[in-house]
């Protein structure tokens, strides 16, 4: 989610300062930089900015966003949190700071934002490791932080359950992560999560199938066989 005002970028990118402004406005992401405006991307890359410089810009942006999160409006909390995670590099500095801020705000998320917070902690990509803060912790051999993120995820899941927040795919992703990293967990707990996830997923695809979605029809057959 980027709040981009393209009028700010009408001028060509000819200097390092202009490049820095554009890079930060694109969320410090080459994906967004290239997607938003190919011409601006060409101008940016023509300056041959080093990875080291970009890393410094990213860290500066991360630290600024980190300083703002405790004073932000509750409605923006999930966005600020996920934005911080998107700025991370593979460095213990980032995962340690993410744990600090998670400890501070995990119980401040408005109920409707819990799912989004879980997406950041657990991850939601196609891999079994899911790409969230849990995976990032274990990739840095920070088992202590990985297990603490798991604990936060469990607490948020319980909070979502009590508030009857839809958690389609979330529970299954959590089980995938726990199994992928061979974490010790109660088998009954994992089985219950998987069963609830299958139930929610079945209903999700059934609704899509009723609306004529072919992919939903295909996936519905998968869940009928379980």
Question: Could you please describe the fold and organization of this structure?
Answer:
There is one protein chain. The chain is an all-alpha fold. It has a domain of 113 residues. Helix 2 crosses helix 3. The two termini are 36 Å apart. The N terminus is likely disordered.
Distance between the first and last residues' Cα: 36 Å
How many beta-strand elements? Answer: 0
Poorly predicted runs: 1-8
Average per-residue pLDDT, rounded, comes to: 91
Quick synopsis:
The protein is an all-alpha fold and 226 residues long.
Looking at this protein, list some descriptive labels.
single chain; disordered N terminus; 226 residues; mainly alpha; 66% helix
Outline the fold blueprint.
Layout: H1 16-25, H2 30-36, H3 38-46, H4 51-68, H5 77-86, H6 92-105, H7 114-122, H8 133-139, H9 143-162, H10 170-180, H11 187-210, H12 214-224
Helix pairs in contact: 2-3, 5-7, 6-9, 7-9, 7-10, 8-9, 10-11, 11-12
């Amino acid at each position: 989610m980027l709040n981009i005002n393209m009028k700010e970028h009408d001028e060509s990118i000819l200097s390092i300062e202009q490049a820095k402004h554009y890079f930060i406005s694109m969320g410090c992401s080459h994906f967004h930089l290239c997607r938003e405006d190919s011409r601006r991307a060409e101008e940016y890359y023509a300056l041959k900015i080093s990875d080291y410089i970009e890393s410094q810009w990213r860290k500066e942006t991360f630290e600024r966003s980190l300083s703002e999160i405790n004073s932000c409006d509750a409605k923006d909390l999930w966005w600020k949190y996920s934005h911080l995670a998107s700025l991370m590099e593979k460095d213990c500095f980032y995962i340690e700071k993410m744990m600090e801020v998670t400890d501070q705000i995990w119980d401040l998320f408005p109920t409707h934002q819990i799912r989004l917070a879980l997406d950041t902690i657990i991850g939601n990509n196609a891999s079994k490791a899911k790409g969230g803060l849990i995976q990032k912790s274990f990739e840095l051999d920070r088992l202590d932080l990985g297990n603490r993120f798991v604990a936060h995820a469990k607490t948020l899941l319980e909070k979502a359950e009590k508030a009857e927040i839809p958690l389609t795919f979330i529970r299954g992703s959590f089980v995938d992560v726990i199994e992928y990293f061979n974490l010790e967990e109660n088998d009954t707990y994992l089985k219950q999560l998987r069963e609830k996830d299958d139930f929610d997923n079945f209903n999700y695809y059934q609704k899509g199938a009723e609306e004529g979605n072919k992919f939903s029809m295909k996936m519905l057959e998968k869940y009928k066989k379980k």
